[in-house]
Amino acid sequence: MRTMVAALVAVVVACSALVDAADPTSDAPETRGSGGSLLKEASSYDEALSIWRSAEDVNAWIGAMFQYDMSRALQLSETQRQQNGRLSIHRPETLFMAPRGVCVDLARFAVETLRAVDPQAKPRYVMIEFHPVSIAGNTLRRHWVVSFERAGKHYFFADSKRPGHIAGPYESTKEFISEYARYRGREIVAFSEMESYERKARTPAVKQNRDERP
Description:
The protein is of the alpha+beta class. Helices cover 36% and strands 22% of the residues.
């Protein structure tokens, strides 16, 4: 009985709304959700696909295993991409075996994995464009999370800022974006919800009107 109660509490905490303020200069984690306590362990990515069934299963692995790679974040900054070209985004099986990366690596892992284990959840990439910040001479503006649907509501997870956290339910992505800007303490100038992280597949970004920005 205690185990069941603990599991239910973990789910409630992981799905709670955004409440605490964050360091606006970094996408690295500050807090870690409780999803890791529900982890279904697997020795390989193929095994994980065979035993995971939901966003909660994917989220539990993220909460327990994912580590943020700041040096890679700088390599993927707009400044470095302009100078050195694009870097490839980690494949899900690569991230599973070496769970260290940045927001877009984590988003790809979550989208492709959830599509494999629960396609009815309709996972999609959410690209968030912040007002840019400069870290060590590198311009950073884009951040990636993942959306999914359940019972007509919208949920968001695979956020490198809060591994193991599921935000929701929301009526719309726009509602989440408004709250997320307050949490991050950064102005969001546009966002897009899309099927792929690759530029060629991106849909037009939704610009935020100034009177709607937090």
